[in-house]
């Protein structure tokens, strides 16, 4: 069953909050499996492992096509799984890793 989230801005964070709220009232008969890079160990590690294919494939393909690494990698950080997936392969390289948030107000707004 899909339940639409009406609280907050409709971001992934808001959806997760609602899912956790529901789970906390039905934990005896349900299990909450988060799909983002948040929560207690081992969930973030599991997400990183599963999503790391994004970075591995990206690195392989860019090196095949361009023969060099890119200057920057940009990923959405709403839930973290996309970002951790692609950033993990490039974390030790001299590359700008840039995370963007869909509900962000911008660096110059002070919010």
UniProtKB/TrEMBL annotation:
Gene Ontology MF, one: tryptophan synthase activity
Gene3D superfamilies: 3.40.50.1100
SUPFAM superfamilies reported for this sequence: Tryptophan synthase beta subunit-like PLP-dependent enzymes (SSF53686)
Gene Ontology cellular component list: cytoplasm
Annotated keywords: Pyridoxal phosphate
Lineage: Bacteria, Pseudomonadati, Pseudomonadota, Gammaproteobacteria, Enterobacterales
InterPro entries assigned: Trp_synth_beta/beta-like (IPR023026), TrpB-like_PALP_sf (IPR036052)
Function: The beta subunit is responsible for the synthesis of L-tryptophan from indole and L-serine.
Protein name per the record: Tryptophan synthase subunit beta
Cofactor(s) recorded in Swiss-Prot or TrEMBL: pyridoxal 5'-phosphate
């Amino acid at each position: 069953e899909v339940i639409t989230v009406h609280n907050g801005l409709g971001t992934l964070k808001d959806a997760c909050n609602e899912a956790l709220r529901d789970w906390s009232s039905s934990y005896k008969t349900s299990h909450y499996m988060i799909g983002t890079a948040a929560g207690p160990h081992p969930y973030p590690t599991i997400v990183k492992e599963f999503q790391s294919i994004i970075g591995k494939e990206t690195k392989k393909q860019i090196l095949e096509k361009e023969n060099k690494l890119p200057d920057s990698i940009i990923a959405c950080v709403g839930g973290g799984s996309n970002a951790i997936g692609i950033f993990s392969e490039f974390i030790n390289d001299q590359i700008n890793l840039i995370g963007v948030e869909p509900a962000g107000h911008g660096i110059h707004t002070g919010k």
